[in-house]
């Protein structure tokens, strides 16, 4: 069993008691809710005549179904309007703060929490969304929960959980040009598999992680779940504290910053902490990673050949064959040159300001390919405003991208943004499952945001480093 | 996924047996005034057969049912009841018929189910009933319902909130 890790310390600090089921009852420091997974839980609460135990430790936003084009009310889709109305009523009744679209603070739940300083080191953070692991970038213990657990958290401020093992993923070396945090996590999932993290929490450490800004750390922690780990985290450091100091919460409560810093320092993993497993990766060897299949673990360097199913471990061969058939790719070829129809720059993985900046650099002075539909969906209204102010919107629009309002959008196709037929999408999102982007025949190629920009302007999967060479030449 | 609530399922309990095609009430105990406040059902054999989804016990629970006594239950139905904290206790057919006759004559009288002791007491009579071992343990120890279980530790939860340095005092509600 692990000992002295951030996970152990935060877990212990939040354990209320051990339940007769053997699970621990954990105090929840921040409960984030959104329109899709909370309404049933509120319904269950009402029917048992229970109130929200800690409304001030709960925060709501709307992201999954919110239209990113026309946001006038009522929303065009009835189900979307119904969910939104339900959420509005629930938060009003319970006295829960709501970053709604009129607030200027709305956005994807995993973008707005960190923006507002709600996400802090040493907190336990839950949300009815599997990408809640994102918040681990700040040294929080953050994980997704199901509807009955949402009910538990609303009613009691706690959740019943079993403790997991801790795997340290040591990422040494420096990232090369055009290679991003996204490539690190795609590489981790490719090596360890989509189930490799089941039963584990991932601690990301090492030079390459320390050198990342908070946004890059969030991209990595975000996809922990795609590798099977329910949570992933990075120990808090000066980069974390600089971010926190600028957030609303600590701007409004500057004394809290000095007050809490010793706590944040205290929950860092000890130098001699014990881990259940350690994996080492050399970041300097990485090139941009793209997926060739229908799971995030089916990735390959953009210049590397797509593997032949028979060269893979036996248990992975069938899914690889089906995936290659669905995607229409051939073993031995590279993904570079794979035609795309849609370029999607968005999602809780990669829709923050540096993601948009990096993509805009590639797009500037170029045009979206004639056969490509390209859209930018900023992660939040704040990202959107900041990007507009620094001229990114103009760059994208001049190049032929659509510039949208904040939301989950085409990452999961719950609003009107969906793939059609067998369209292929170059996507900065996190899941390439069949049907994920709204069409059962749709094809998704996951990649970093600069790579999405490169694909948008060339009409095919492209090694972004080649475009950078042209730019600097 | 685009469903907002389970509310309102109660009025659909036994809908086809309680109402005809034109929504007129049919002859059914759940339509009788004298049983409107009832919380225990006494049923016969293989009750719940054909309902593998949670909707059936959900509807009964919403109608007001807290416990069911019967000759036998469909296994999946009983499991779903347990998930909602509804005991499904059994007795032989003769005992059940006597109990049903008593309920019919005494609709306003109380009836007590002791899950731990496996007895049902009504009037001056106490009968032995059977409660499945796992069900008895879950209900007696309260581990079927994490919400209730964790709610019962509210005092310790408050204490934990007070101990954590990042939880503002203003975020901790007054004790109930």
Short précis:
The complex is a heterodimer of chains A (about 475) and B (about 180). Chain A is α/β, with parallel strands linked by helices and about 475 residues long.
If you had to describe this structure to a student in words, what would you say it looks like?
The complex is a heterodimer of chains A (473) and B (176). Chain A folds into 2 domains: 6-266, Aconitase, domain 3, CATH 3.30.499; 291-472, Aconitase, domain 3 (2-Layer Sandwich). Helices cover 35% and strands 16% of the residues of chain A. Chain A contains 17 helices and 19 strands. Chain A has helices at residues 6-14, 39-47, 78-94, 109-116, 147-156, 181-192, 207-210, 214-222, 238-245, 248-252, 254-266, 314-327, 353-363, 381-389, 392-399, 449-458, 464-472; strands spanning 15-18, 24-27, 30-33, 58-61, 97-99, 124-127, 141-144, 158-161, 165-172, 200-205, 231-233, 277-282, 289-291, 299-301, 342-345, 373-376, 402-403, 424-427, 443-446. In chain A, the strands form 5 sheets. In chain A, strands 5-4-3-6-7 form a 5-stranded parallel β-sheet, with helices on both faces. In chain A, strands 17-16-15-18-19 form a 5-stranded parallel β-sheet, covered by helices on one side. Chain A has a 4-stranded parallel β-sheet with strand order 11-10-9-12. In chain A, α13 (353-363) links the parallel β15 and β16. The longest helix of chain A has 17 residues, at 78-94. The mean pLDDT of chain A is 96. Chain B is α/β, with parallel strands linked by helices. Chain B folds into 2 domains: 10-144, Aconitase, domain 4 (Alpha-Beta Barrel), CATH 3.20.19; 145-176, no CATH class. Chain B contains 7 helices and 6 strands, in the order αβαβαβαβββααα. In chain B, the strands form 2 sheets. In chain B, strands 1-2-3 form a 3-stranded parallel β-sheet. A 3-stranded antiparallel β-sheet of chain B has the order 4-5-6, covered by helices on one side. Chain B is globular and about 60 Å long. The two termini of chain B are 35 Å apart. The model of chain B has no long low-confidence stretch (mean pLDDT 86). The chains are: A alpha/beta (473), B alpha/beta (176). Chain A binds chain B through residues 13-14, 16-17, 19-21, 25, 27, 29, 36, 39-40, 42-44, 46-48, 50, 53-57, 65, 79, 82-83, 86, 120, 122-123, 148, 151-152, 155-158, 160, 259-260, 263, 414, and chain B through 1-7, 62, 141-143, 146-147, 149-151, 153-154, 156-157, 160-161, 163-168, 170-173.
